């Protein structure tokens, strides 16, 4: 084997990147209104399946998402809080047992002024979840379908005063 062929066969093996979901949208509103809509229960209840979030929003404090029937849907911890620009939480789904066992993901919400709109970027990444656990892939499939609908509803709600019908109510199958 010549030197070039040997070098090619000894190339470093790279692992695939862990799951990550990034979604960017532009909302014609103000930073303060978008931030409030993401963090305050009177707003989330209107466009996000009637959920409420409970937290003091201090880094290190608990973060709880409650379904309209009072069940705890998601839990985590506030990791960062810099209103109205950014906040981050650790996130674990609590209702479906198979998703709960995967551990905590990390979700970062970033807002920035972009001309006459607010650019909202959500990065939902693996956090402490086990990338080899098949339930981690199920979790990311779930959020890959959920975030686009929730954020489209947020955009509609802030721009027109009406959320999307698809996210007005808690899903019947949960």
Structural key phrases:
globular; Alpha-D-Glucose-1,6-Bisphosphate, Chain A, domain 4; alpha+beta; 31% strand; seven-stranded antiparallel sheet
Major sheet details: 7 strands, antiparallel
**Cα shape:** globular
List the strand order in the largest sheet. Answer: 1-7-6-5-4-3-2
CATH superfamily: START domain
Question: What's the topology here?
Answer:
Blueprint: H1 3-9, E1 20-27, H2 31-39, H3 41-47, E2 52-54, E3 62-66, E4 72-82, E5 86-93, H4 97-100, E6 105-114, E7 117-125, H5 134-160
Antiparallel strand pairs: 1-7, 2-3, 3-4, 4-5, 5-6, 6-7
What features would you describe in this structure?
It is a single chain. This protein is of the alpha+beta class and 174 residues long. The protein has a single domain (18-163), classed as START domain (Alpha-D-Glucose-1,6-Bisphosphate, Chain A, domain 4, 2-Layer Sandwich), CATH 3.30.530. It contains 5 helices and 7 strands, in the order αβααββββαββα. Strand 2 (52-54) and strand 3 form a beta hairpin. Helix 2 crosses helix 3. The protein is globular. The mean pLDDT is 88.
Short description:
This protein is of the alpha+beta class and about 170 residues long.
């Amino acid at each position: 084997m010549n030197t070039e062929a040997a070098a090619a066969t000894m190339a470093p093996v790279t692992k695939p990147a862990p799951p990550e979901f990034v979604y960017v949208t532009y909302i014609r509103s103000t930073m303060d209104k978008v931030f409030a809509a993401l963090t305050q229960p009177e707003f989330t209840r209107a466009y996000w399946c009637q959920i409420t979030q409970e937290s003091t929003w201090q880094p290190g404090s608990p973060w709880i998402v409650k379904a309209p029937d009072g069940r705890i849907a998601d839990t985590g911890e506030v990791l960062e809080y810099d209103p109205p620009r950014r906040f981050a939480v650790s996130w674990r789904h609590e209702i479906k047992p198979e998703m709960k066992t995967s551990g905590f993901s990390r979700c970062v919400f970033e807002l920035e002024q972009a001309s006459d709109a607010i650019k909202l970027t959500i990065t939902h990444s693996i956090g402490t979840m086990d990338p080899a656990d098949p339930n981690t892939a199920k979790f990311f499939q779930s959020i890959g379908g959920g975030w686009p609908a929730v954020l489209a509803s947020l955009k509609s709600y802030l721009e027109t005063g009406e959320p999307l019908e698809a996210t007005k109510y808690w899903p019947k199958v949960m």
